[in-house]
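Collaborator request, handled under Task 6.
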Amino acid sequence: MAGNIDQILEKLNITLPEVTAPAANYVPYTITGNTVVISGQLPMQDGKPQYIGKVGDEFSVEEGQACAKICGLNILAHLKNACGGDLDRVKKCVRLGIFVNATPERTDQPVVANGVSDMMVEIFGKEVGSHARAAVGVGSLPFGVAVEVEAMFEIK
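C-alpha cells returned to the collaborator:
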C-alpha cells in the first residue's frame, strides 16, 4: 500500500525521477542522526541537464521556477532512497539552498526559489514542508544550468 506522501504525489501527478550518479567526488546525500543532507541537485532529466543558461537572458522567472521544481524532484528522489523508500518518514523540511544562475542585474532570486519552496509545502503540507531558505544569485553553475538546489530534512 502506498504511503501518504506517495498518494499525494500521485494526486499531484508527480512521478519522481530515477536518481542520477554524482558528477564529481561526493555522495548524493548523507545522514547524521535524524538529519538527511541532500547534495545540490541540478535540473537533470533522463541523465541530461535541462535549462542551460541564465535567468534574465535565456529564461524568465517563471521558467526559473520550473527549473527549480525539477531540482526539487531530484532532491525528493534521493530523499526517498535515504528514507528506505518511505517519504512518510520525513518529519520536517529544514532548509533549502537555491542558487540561481542569473544576470548581474537580477534581484528576484527569491521568486525563482518559490518554484521549489511552494512544491515542498504542497507535497508535505505547511507544518512539515515550510523551511528556512537561502536564495542566492550566482555567475555560473555546473553544466551552465539555470538553478541548483540543496536541501536538509529531519526524518523519523
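The cover message to the collaborator said: "The beta strands are 29-32, 35-41, 44-45, 48-49, 90-101, 132-138, 147-155. The mean pLDDT is 96. Please let us know whether this matches your experimental observations."
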